[in-house]
Every structure is written in C-alpha cells, then in structure tokens.
Amino acid sequence: MSSITACPLDCYDACEILFEEGKLKGLKNGHTQGFLCPHMNHYEKYETIQKPRYKGTEISLDEALLKLKEMICSCEKSEVLHYRGSGNFALMQEVTDHFFASYGAVLTEGTLCDGAGEAGITEGRGSNKNMPIHEVAKSEVVIFWGRNPHTTSSHLLPLIKDKTVIVIDPIKTKIAKAADLHIQLKPHTDLFLAMLLSRFLHIENGCDEEFLNEFASEYEDYYELTQNLRIKAILDSIDVSLGQLGNLLGLVKDKKVAIVCGVGMQKYSDGVDVMRAIDAFAAMLGLFGKEGCGVGYLGSSREGITSPFNKKSKKVSKVNTEFNDFKTVFIQGANPLSQMPNSARVRESIGKVENVVYFGLYENETSEIADLIIPAKSFLYKDDVRTSYSHNVMSFMPKVAQSNVGISEYDLCTYLCKEFGVTLESEEFYIRHFKNFAVQKIDGSWYVENREEVPYKDGFDTKSKEFAFLDELDSKVDDNEGFHLITCKSPTSLNSQFNRQEYLFLHSSLGFDEGEVVTVSSVDGSVKLKVRHNDDLRRDCVLIYSGTKGVNNLTTHKHALSTKSAIFQENKVEISR
Ligand SMILES: Nc1nc2c(c(=O)[nH]1)N[C@H]1C(S)=C(S)[C@@H](COP(=O)(O)OP(=O)(O)OC[C@H]3O[C@@H](n4cnc5c(=O)[nH]c(N)nc54)[C@H](O)[C@@H]3O)O[C@H]1N2
Ligand SMILES: Nc1nc2c(c(=O)[nH]1)N[C@H]1C(S)=C(S)[C@@H](COP(=O)(O)OP(=O)(O)OC[C@H]3O[C@@H](n4cnc5c(=O)[nH]c(N)nc54)[C@H](O)[C@@H]3O)O[C@H]1N2
Ligand code: SF4
Ligand SMILES: [Mo]
User: Fold this and answer.
1) By alpha-carbon position, which residue is closest to atom 14 of ligand 1?
2) Average pLDDT taken over every residue of the chain
3) Which structural domain, as residue segments, surrounds residue 441?
4) For residue 76, how many other CB atoms are within 10 A of its CB?
5) Residue 478 has what pLDDT?
C-alpha cells in the first residue's frame, strides 16, 4: 500500500511524501524531485511522547482531557492563554484557535520568525506577495541574501545549476563557496550595502528607468537619501570593497535576477528597514512583475486562503509574552522555553503560571516544566492540508497510518467545543474548505488558485500603486563592543525538533581550543558551551545554531522597531573562560 502526503514541518520546501510500507520517500513528480532532507529521512527514529502526564504521573487521555477542562474552568476566560508555535505548519493546526477565540481566551500575535522582513516588504510594496521559488528556474542570476539553501531549502538547489550565483552572508556557507561572488560582509550591515548598491547602480546608469518612471517614480529622492552615506567610511565599516560592489553590479545589470532572501539579515531592531532597502535595490533594477525576476522571501503560507476558523480574540505578543498575566497557558506545537528570546525571562514568567499545558510531540524544555502533557498525533496519523511560504502548491495530507498514541488537534478541539458549547463543523468540512482554494494544473499538482506566479505585474499594492522607498535613514553601523551572535538554522535540527546542536562555533585564530568550555554572555544572560572551530566564520562572529540549548539566554525579548517580531541577533556577546 502506498499513499501520498506531505511534510508538515516549518520549511520553505513543503515537500510531498510517498508513504510506502512504513517508509517515507520524496515524491518524484513535482517540486520534491524525489528526495527528502535528513529530518524526514529519519523522522521515525525520534522518540515521541507516548502517554499523557499530570504533575509527573502518567494518566489516560480521558483523564488528561478532563484535567484540561478543569484548568480552563478554574480561572476567568481572560486568564487563559493559547500559545501556538510552528512545529507543524499544516492548516488544521489552527482549529484550536477557533475554540480558544470562541471561548473568550487570549491568543498571540506577532512572530519569532520573519515579521520584520515582512513588514519592510509591506511598507514598500503595500503587500507581501512572494516570488514563487520555481520562478528561479527562469532567472539568469540568483542572489542568496541572508539565506542558506543547503540547510533550509535544498529543493531549490537543482533549479540553480548553471546560473550565476551571488551570496551575501557573513558566513562562508556551502553555497557561498560555490558562488561566482561571495560578499562576506559584517553582520547587521545589509541596509548600508543595499543602499550603496542602489546608489552605484544609479551612478552607472544601470537603473530600469522605464519601470521606475511607471512604478517607483520617487527613485531620485531615494538616490538622494543614499548620498548621505559616506562611501569610504561605510565600506570600511561594513567590510566590503568598492571592487565587490562593482563586481556585483556587473553581474546583475540587464539580467533576469532573483533575489532570494532569508531571515538572516532581518533579525535586528531595524530589520524592517533592512528588507525594505533590499527591496528598493530590486525596484531600482526593475525586478518586479517580470518572469524570472523578483524577490523571494517568506510569503504567507495562508495567502489566497480565508480561514474557516474564528480567531477574533484579545491578543498578546508572541515575542515578549507576559505569561504570568495568565492562570492557564495552553502551549501547542511550540517550545517557548527554548525558542522564544530571553529564556531567563520566559522561565521566570511562565514559572508563575498555575497551569501550564504542553500539547506536542517531543520531550523538551517546555514539557519539562509543564503541569499537564498531552501527546499530539504526528502528521502521519491525522488528516490535514498544507501550503508553503515559498511556492504556491497545496498538498493534501490524508491520514496514512493508524496509531493509538496521542490525539489530533481536531479531536482535542472537538472535546473542548462540546464541553464548553462552542460550535464546530466536521473535520471533512474544514478540509474541503481549504481544498476549495486549489486548482489542479497540467503538471498534476494542486495550486492555490488566487496566487500570482509573477506578482506586481500591474504595479504595487500601495495607495499610489507605486513602490514606496525609505525616506529616512535611522540606522548606524553597530560598532559596539563584542562579538556578533549569528544564530541561524542547523542542518541537523528543525529549530528545537530532532538532532539539536550543542556547540558554539568560532574562528580558530581567536585562541580558544576545540572542546574547551567557555561562557558566552550578553546583557540578558549567559550560557556555557563547548567550542568548535569553524574558519568559514568571520573573526568577529560567534555561531550558535537555533535549537542549541541555552542560546536564547543571550537574546533580547525586544521587538523590531515598528512591528511585533523577534530580533535574535540584536545583542552582542562576549566570551570568557
Ligand atoms: N535544517 C533546517 N531547516 C530549516 C529550519 C531549521 O531549523 N533547520 N528552520 C525553518 C525556519 S523556521 C525558517 S524561518 C527558515 C529560515 O531559513 P533561512 O532563511 O535560510 O535562515 P537562517 O538559517 O536563520 O539564516 C540564513 C543565513 O543568514 C545569514 N546571516 C546571519 N546574519 C546575517 C546578516 O546580518 N546579514 C546577512 N546578509 N546574512 C546573515 C546566516 O549566516 C545564514 O547563512 O528555515 C526553515 N528550514
Ligand atoms: N536563537 C534562535 N531562536 C530562534 C530562531 C533562531 O534562528 N535562533 N528561530 C526562530 C524561528 S524562525 C522560529 S519559526 C521559532 C520556532 O519555534 P517553535 O515554534 O517553538 O518550534 P520548534 O522548536 O520546532 O518546536 C515545535 C514543537 O512542536 C511540536 N510539534 C511538532 N509537530 C506537532 C504536531 O503535529 N502537533 C502538535 N500539537 N505539536 C507538534 C514539537 O513537539 C516541538 O516541540 O524559533 C525561533 N527561535
Ligand atoms: S526539506 Fe523541508 S519540507 Fe522537505 S522534507 Fe525536509 S523539512 Fe520537510
Ligand atoms: Mo521560522
């Protein structure tokens, strides 16, 4: 027996899976191209939570559900918080939002992920419509900007063979080593690089004036803004040479260019402006509304789909959540004690909550402190549908096997809705609702119908239909003391799921020995980790992967300016023996 489903993980690729005799294989047809990544290749080897627990004692699922009901009843409705993460990215995860919102509990808003960049894109274009990643196949030049495709979007790699590749990344990543040009800039300086690129493009008459006059007519004002930058001083402080700027411009002029951005360069307080300046460079090149051109980032995986669920509720930020304002906190598909910024603050705040419920698959820092643990069913054992934030395919995810362990989000929600008198439609109703947004194309795949392959063909979604350039420059190059913390994605884990890293990585010339334990500290906290050498790093950087225990002791719970997004690389760090 074989069935087709899709990987549920929070990942650009949203692969489709052939489930055959208990084995997971990448679907040959379509965007998955017959291969999966290490997470899915070894998915079954990771031990999941088998039994519900209350204060350390195993209980039955019925008892667990009753406890959950009692916990919800034990306080005011406004003292119940539903905190949902992105452990599973499929659409039925949101069914629990429907219960908690309808009941009168509080939900979260904001993001730990891509929010600053998204806000920057929206300020410039009036919306965040993504260049679907398959468009890259038609590009001549691909710029990876703060994105690490070998680790986080490997299904993109077959599409870029034979193309000119440019990488802008403080780490000499695998793609950087193979690239035609790598700009290994100082971290947190992309805003200046993007502005200087726009300025020199203008000086060299490389702008797409026809496009600009029609869709971005304020470009001369933007050019003037870029003139406030002192070229030599800025280039010195961001560690980029005039030659590199010239090389980059030489490679992209009059070419079909895709700028494939990741979350790397927007993990800072001014992340909104950083992304907007990169978008402005794309506008200066006239990359919007044309085949094989554009800016790829994390679009919304919900774009073109309306939710069947009620989500109207009071909301608190997901970044600096004051858990102690609540008596019952229901955590689903998330590991906030590891993945939220400023772990000491999270731990203290959540420590004051009477009832912490963890609804997930794996044991972790959050299950460790939870009062009630309810195991979820993995994607193989429940019905769902998913979409991607980097392409337009909708994948159906029928239940492909049976398991007595855990409970699905829909079944848990059915129980709660029944107990508290909230209306809920059937599971089939919701799945059908989502599927109705898809159409099948000749390649056999289903695509979200209302998403454009080449967005912004008729102008932008701002009021004036024109691109809105940055009109002020508020940032300075960060020359504070200390090392830059790079905390990006690990090849072996999906944030805190699967095989988590345990090291901190440093340039070997800094005088720390391999294997030596050092203390890394920031204004918010510290962590002890073992050193590993990595000469692909700059000497002013410390790399600690997402999912490493204790990394978020170092990070700030402040928001990016003007949006509720986390900024994991804002704090500088020090290292001591
Ligand atoms: N294997 C694996 N895949 C994943 C994930 C995972 O944990 N593991 N997580 C998933 C999730 S949740 C997300 S959001 C995506 C994110 O995936 P990506 O968008 O690729 O994000 P990151 O790995 O955080 O960072 C990408 C690159 O940005 C670089 N970078 C860091 N700081 C700067 C800077 O200041 N400027 C520039 N130009 N570059 C910088 C880093 O060195 C890194 O190479 O990946 C998804 N896929
Ligand atoms: N230092 C640092 N911190 C970061 C980042 C970083 O790059 N560096 N990245 C940030 C980003 S981009 C993101 S997106 C966040 C991610 O942070 P989280 O959303 O907390 O993601 P995970 O760590 O993957 O934890 C997901 C949890 O979901 C559970 N789960 C998996 N599948 C299911 C399911 O089907 N049902 C239920 N109920 N539970 C399930 C698993 O048990 C797992 O514990 O982390 C952020 N934190
Ligand atoms: S590449 Fe991404 S979508 Fe594909 S199997 Fe791996 S985690 Fe899942
Ligand atoms: Mo993310």
Assistant:
1) 113
2) 97
3) 2-111+303-448
4) 11
5) 87
Whether 358 lines ligand 2, by a CB cut-off of 6 Å, is no
The beta strand positions in 262-375, using DSSP E, are 294-296, 315-317, 328-332, 355-360, 372-375
Give yes or no: residues 496 and 535 share one domain: yes
- Ligand 1 center from residue 156 Cα (angstroms): 15
Tell me the CB-side half-sphere exposure of residue 363, using CA atoms within 13 A.
10
Regarding whether 130 and 250 lie in a shared domain, the answer is yes
Is 16 a member of any domain? yes
pLDDT at 258: 98
Residue 460 lies in a domain: no
Q: Which residue has its alpha carbon closest to ligand 2 atom 13?
A: 113
Token couple for 47: 């031990």
Closest Cα to atom 41, ligand 1: which residue?
264
Which atom belonging to ligand 2 lies closest to the Cα atom of 544?
1
Ligand 2 atom closest to Cα of 487? Answer: 8
Using the 3D structure, point to which of 448, 470, 495 is the last residue of a domain: 448
* Predicted pLDDT at 25: 97
pLDDT at 412: 98
CATH code of the domain containing 261: 3.40.228.10
What does the alpha-carbon distance between residue 375 and residue 172 come to, in Å, rounded to a whole number? Answer: 40
Q: What is the pLDDT of residues 307-335, one digit of tens each?
A: 999 999 999 999 999 999 999 999 999 99
What is the dihedral angle through the alpha carbons of 302, 307, 310, 316, rounded to the nearest 10 degrees? 10
Q: How far apart are CA 204 and CA 74, in angstroms?
A: 68
Q: Which helix (DSSP H) or strand (DSSP E) does residue 65 occupy?
A: helix 61-73
In this structure, which residue's CA is closest to atom 5 in ligand 3? 36
Q: Tens digit of pLDDT for each residue in 42-74?
A: 999 999 999 999 999 999 999 999 999 999 999
Among the bound ligands, the one closest to the CA of 491: 1
Q: List CB contacts of 130: < 8 A, sequence separation 6 or more.
A: 296, 297, 298, 299, 303, 389, 390, 455
Q: Which of 296, 312, 347 is the last residue of a domain?
A: 296
What whole-number distance in Å separates Cα of residue 549 and Cα of residue 492?
14
> CA 115 to CA 132: how far, in whole Å?
19
CB of 11 closer than 6 A to ligand 3? yes
- By DSSP bridging, strand 394-397 and strand 384-387 are antiparallel
Atom of ligand 3 nearest to the CA of 7: 8
Task: Work out which ligand 2 atom sits closest to the CA atom of 366.
Answer: 44
The tokens describing 252, both together, are 């992209």
The torsion defined by the Cα of 525, 529, 534 and 535, in degrees rounded to 10, comes to 50
Low-confidence ranges of the chain (pLDDT < 50): none
Nearest atom in ligand 1 to 489's CA: 23
Q: Is residue 228 part of a domain?
A: yes
Q: Is residue 150 part of a domain?
A: yes
Q: Is the CB of 156 under 6 A from ligand 3?
A: no
Statement to judge: residues 52 and 124 lie in one domain: no
H helices within 89-208, ranges in order? 95-103, 115-125, 149-152, 174-178, 190-203
Dist. CA 11 → ligand 4 center (Å): 8
CATH number of the domain where residue 513 is located: 2.40.40.20
CATH number of domain containing 44: 3.40.50.740
Model confidence over 126-182: pLDDT tens digits?
Answer: 999 999 999 999 999 999 999 999 999 999 999 999 999 999 999 999 999 999 999
